[in-house]
Specification:
Blueprint: H1 6-10, H2 12-31, H3 34-62, H4 72-106, H5 119-147, H6 158-163, H7 181-199, H8 207-213, H9 215-225, H10 234-245
Helix pairs in contact: 2-3, 2-5, 3-4, 4-5, 7-10, 9-10
Length: 247
């Protein structure tokens, strides 16, 4: 079983590699130094490989996390931006290979005349800037889902924290659906034996999340995907939702 946390582990590699490759290429053009040019090209290829695996891990994680309705639009935008970023990085690699071949063929980085080898670098630089903007935007959005909405971590979103506060004096709250004592006890036992290895001893899912997602939707999600590869039965997922609803 692959944990969804693999994605945030991998995404930092293409970010660091792309910025470093851009810096090395800038030094290469400025100093007309082939060592920095070759080093930048190697890092750029590593960036393409890293972003490919980061995208695969992200698509896998998106299908194995409980996502509240408020986060789903952010997740769709993050997925779209990530795929676009991967395509842009592939374009950067293609343009950089063209610049590399031109420089290797001429043996010099000239800026004028029929043997102009600097021109391909203009296109590569434009693609670089777009790639840096896209990878930064994608990373900011991914961080917002984690730190602002608690996606994939054992923490409540800000909206859930607000709704979990004690009610004002004279007001009453209701739980929908109602949680029976027997179902809650069964759900607690199932969580302890099945879910703690991934989510920890304290469930990150509460009545607020059940109300936000809908009990039926959460029950269906758990019965079809949790734990990944060997999901619990319908009756067990029902008991788990009853347990979460009582927290």
């Amino acid at each position: 079983m692959i944990p969804p946390t693999v994605h945030p582990m991998l995404v930092h590699f293409p970010i660091a590699l792309l910025f470093t490759a851009f810096l090395l290429d800038a030094i290469a053009v400025w100093r007309r130094d082939r060592f920095f040019e070759r080093a930048g090209l190697v890092l750029l290829w590593l960036t393409l490989i890293a972003v490919f695996f980061a995208i695969l891990a992200g698509l896998y994680a998106a299908g194995h996390l409980l996502v509240t309705p408020s986060v789903r639009p952010l997740l769709r935008a993050h997925r779209r931006d990530g795929i676009i970023t991967g395509l842009v990085i592939a374009a950067i690699v293609a343009l950089r290979m063209r610049a590399h071949r031109a420089w290797t063929k001429s043996g010099d980085l000239s800026a004028a005349g029929p043997g102009d080898t600097l021109k391909p670098w203009y296109y590569a630089s434009a693609a670089y800037i777009l790639g840096l903007i896209m990878i930064s935007t994608t990373g900011i959005l991914g961080g917002s889902m984690v730190y602002d909405h608690g996606l994939g971590v054992a923490a409540l979103p800000p909206t859930a924290v607000q709704s979990a506060r004690p009610p004002a004096s004279g007001t009453t709250t209701t739980r929908t659906p109602s949680s029976t004592t027997a179902a809650v006890a069964q759900g607690k036992q199932i969580y302890t034996t099945t879910c703690t290895r991934c989510h920890g001893p304290t469930p990150p899912f509460t009545h607020s999340l059940v109300s936000s997602m809908g009990a039926a939707n959460m029950q269906q999600f758990i019965a079809s995907r949790m734990p990944p590869g060997s999901p619990v039965s319908s009756s067990q997922s029902h008991a788990l939702v009853q347990y979460f609803n009582a927290l």
